[in-house]
Input
Amino acid sequence: MRVAMIGTGYVGLVSGTCFSDFGHEVVCIDKDADKIARLKQGEIPIFEPGLDDLVRRNAAAGRLQFDTDLTQAVREAEVVFIAVGTPSRRGDGHADLSYVHAAAREIARAAQGFTVVVTKSTVPVGTGADIEHIIREEAPDADIAVVSNPEFLREGAAIEDFKRPDRIVVGTSDPRAREVMAALYRPLSLNAAPVMFTERATAELIKYASNAFLAMKITFINELADLCEKVGGDVQEVARGIGLDRRIGPKFLHAGPGYGGSCFPKDTLALMRTAQEAGTPLRLIETVTTVNDSRKAAMGRRVLDAIGTPPRGATVAVLGLTFKPNTDDMRDSPAINIVQSLLDRGVRVRAFDPVGMAEARKVLPPAVDYANDPYDCAEGADGLVIVTEWDAFRALDLDRLKTLLRQPVVVDLRNIYPPADLTSRGFRYVGIGRGA
Ligand code: UGA
Output
């Protein structure tokens, strides 16, 4: 099938590439000529394990192309995906749909023959209807069906998630569109991925509801971690204990410094706004966003308390800056709050991240020093904080670390070490929710 993918951000690039890997002919479109030129050279603008190989392989086979010309790609396509950004709108937290609407207008003018227009961007309920309206206005005779097909991939595991999803959700009541979408995803159904067909508005809600639910799960365990710190009990074990109940499930119950990234903070806010305006506020989700924001804001203070409030001019080593491992994405990373509050209290910050330092330099204050590796980072520091659970931090040479640190204090915000590994070596160890 011929596919046009509008937008080469995370979702667009990964989905377009994976569709081409299944044998579909895909043209990825972006207005950013520089980005397209670099993609044509095989240069991938994001860090995502395995993506560069997949792009090069499919581009070489001629199934994956990159272009700035939307018109031609849409004219030739049977399926056109809208995968442009939907950032939070300044001021009110609603998803900013200006890129989505602009893409819809351009698609309307270019489409020829029956064309299925699919929203892959995360968009509020009702957006599919708006897009349909825009297209009818722009091109009254166009033969177009507008479908919602949200994407559930995670950064850092994007290819695996795309190719082996738990489910594929397709929102449409148009039988021709349904057939086209079934054909498009047929290669995936071989991996036993269930395709769920539903109404368009339902599909739009499923995406936000999934992210909001996961954010809620994380926030729940984070609050229980706080409780463990006051009354005793190990939150890791509590999570395991409740997660073995299949009605609860073990995933997304890992306590930490609060969730970040480009999706949970933005999507919970957007869903909250939609619900408030509909007069049916989602009070649980409102609380989740407030609790998570204050958790991230308070995390720097907690780190300092754990280290024992070092004097002004002391140095804290920060390991891990990205919002999670296997990505270079710094968006809404808890590290941003932590670093800022350390600097605000006159503490120097020396940081290391295996992949995210170039991005970090763009968003963190210039006062931050960057190290070459975890040991370089720890040298002479008055304490070390693990903010992101990169694999590279899971088996550090603890004896070496102890000789390098001025004060042997480790604050492990992701609970990646058994406390005894450190305490038996004479470290002071502070995890998250690991007893009073
Ligand atoms: C999230 C969803 O997991 C995807 O299903 C969804 O497609 C995506 O948003 C999106 O809407 O595009 P992502 O933001 O890439 O994916 O990352 P996650 O793995 O979900 O992690 C988000 C945040 O939650 C991270 O800061 C992570 O450290 C935190 N987290 C996650 C925890 O603190 N504890 C956990 O148990 C799990």
About this structure: Residues 208-289 form a domain with the N-(1-d-carboxylethyl)-l-norvaline Dehydrogenase; domain 2 fold (CATH 1.10.1040.10).
